[in-house]
Structures are given as C-alpha cells and as structure tokens.
Amino acid sequence: MNLTSKTKGDTRIVTVHETRIDASVAILFKDRMREETDSAEGRVVLDLSKVDFIDSSGLGAIVAAMKQLGSKHRMDLSGLNENVDKVFRLTRMDTVFKIHPSLEEALAA
Amino acid sequence: MTKNNPDIHIELEGTPEEVRAALMKLRARVSEQQLETFNAGTLEVVLAEVLNNIVEHALANHSDGTITLSADYDVNQWNIRVRDDGAPMPGNQIPAGDQPDVDTDFLDLPEGGFGWMMVRTLARDITYYRTPQNWNELTFTIPDTPT
Q1: Is the pLDDT of residue B1 over 70?
Q2: Which CATH number belongs to the domain containing residue A57 in this structure?
Q3: For residue B116, what pLDDT band results from cuts at 50, 70 and 90?
Q4: Structural domains of chain B, with CATH
Q5: What is the pLDDT of residue B107?
Q6: Which of A75, A91, A95, A99 is the best substitution to test chain B (most B C-beta atoms within 10 A)?
Q7: How many cross-chain Cβ pairs, A to B, lie less than 8 Å apart?
Q8: Which helix (H) or strand (E) holds A5?
Q9: What is the pLDDT of residue B75?
Q10: Which of A13, A90, A108, B97 is 20 to 30 Å from B90 by CA-CA measure?
Q11: B55, A22 contact by CB (below 8 A)
C-alpha cells in the first residue's frame, strides 16, 4: 500500500499511489493512514486522484482513518474519480467529508 | 437470463485477492471485447460487493470455495449470474440492505453495512436461489443506458 505524505502550512497531504482501495487492502490502508497522519498538526487532505476504484470496505477504511485522527483534526478528500465519487454519493458519505475537485482546490480552500 | 455461452465467464476462489483479480479481469474483458457499455463502473461496484459478501459470509472460514461469475451484455442491460458453493443466505433471503445512518456523531459514523444497500440501489431484478446441489445462485441485471 503505497502512501506518501507532505506538509504544507498546517495541512498534511496524504497521496494514495494505488488504483484500488478494496477489501484486500482495507486494513493495511487504515494502518498506513495512521502512520502518515500520526504527527499531523492540523487538517488532513487525502488525495485520491490516482484511485479509480473503491468498494464498501475501502470506504469503511477511509471513514476509520478519519475517526482515528480524533475530532480535533478534519479530513478532507480531493480528486475523486467518477467511480469513487459514485460510491461516496450512494452511501451519503459525501455529506460527511468535504470533497474538493482537486488537490489545488483543497489547498486553496 | 444468461446465455449458455456468456460473454464473460470468470471462475475464482473465495479470497479478497481473487476478487480483486476477477474484477480487473472483468475490466479487461469489457474493453477487449469492445462491449460498448455505458455503465461498466456500476457493474464493477455491484460485483465487488456481491463477491466480497460471498467471501466474507458464504465462504467465511474456508478459502477453498469456488465462485463463478457470468456476465452477458445486452443492448441496454447487463445480465449477471453469480454462483458459489458456500453456506446459504441467512433465512434463504437476500439481506434488506438498509441505508446505514450517516447523520450521527463523528465517532458513531458507520464503517460498514453499505454493501447490500449499494447492490439493491444499483441492481434490478435480484433473485436468490439455493440449488439442490447446495450452490447459491444470485441473478440480477444492471441497467446500461447513457446517463
């Protein structure tokens, strides 16, 4: 599970370098998210622009990753492809996360 | 109904890794055979949930189970049949698939329970049958029209 992160101002940007977040990697994803966000000081932006498929286990892992940050850190999402966006809308998780069209827009927000 | 010789036929074992491989194979076949589908993404989302549910429930605790997936492309819909040799659905029924509540406190947000809700929302004509040979057989259609 290839995740990288960098810090810009008080925002921790985590980029997923995988095309799929599914049941076979959900637990690993959650663990890697914890490592990449442990020392975050403010908002976290999860950049999903390279991901073209998530299933409900992947969605659950993203929710779990936000919850493990605790309530003092917000987690936004950016760069959702069509199929990924569809899963967020169907499950109404698009009402839980702030979703930005691109990382640039997430950083400007 | 799926034809005797379906457009796409994939057999897999009951593990999450096999499910991933099967879905990637499905994608490749759809483009190889130049099936001019509008809705391959929806098909993949529904099949992922159906197959994951089989792995997690019907075939829980044994990874040597078999799943077969047949997909026929029709002019405006996909006809799908998925079979597995695992345990029957509880009560011989497809789960209700209610929408999990997302209007909750942050820490109570659901991390699961979305699978059947998505299947029921996106698929049509869902039927479940337990065969006399002890296979589960699920059939459904996915509408395929331009959106």
Answers
A1: no
A2: 3.30.750.24
A3: very high
A4: 8-143 (3.30.565.10)
A5: 83
A6: A91
A7: 80
A8: strand A3-8
A9: 80
A10: A90
A11: no
Written as one letter, the residue type at B5 is N
pLDDT, residue B31, reads 86
The parent domain of residue A38 ranges over 3-108
The pLDDT of residue B50 is: 98
Nearest to A55 among B52, B111, B117 (CB): B52
Mean of pLDDT values over A99-103 = 97
Subunit contact A24:B42, Cβ cutoff 8 A: no
Per the CB < 8 Å rule, is A22 touching B19? Answer: yes
Question: A93 and B102: CB-CB below 8 Å?
Answer: yes
Nearest CA in chain B to A95: B102
What is the average pLDDT score of chain B?
91
Handedness of CA B80, B85, B87, B88 (dihedral sign): positive
List chain B residues with CB under 8 Å of A30.
none
* Lookup: tokens for A28: 């690993």
CA separation for the pair A22, A20 (Å, rounded): 6
Q: What is the mean pLDDT of residues A25-46?
A: 95
Of A56, A86, A87, the CB nearest to B112: A56
Structural domain tally of chain A?
A: 1
Kindly report the nearest CA distance between residue A89 and chain B, in angstroms. Answer: 10
Residue A78's pLDDT band, with cuts at 50, 70 and 90, is: very high
Higher pLDDT, B40 or A24: A24
Burial of B108 (0-12, 13-18, 19+ CB in 10 A): exposed
Kindly tell me the burial class for residue A23, based on how many C-beta atoms sit within 10 Å of its own C-beta (0-12, 13-18, 19 or more).
Answer: buried
Q: Which spans in chain B are helix H?
A: 16-32, 40-53, 115-122
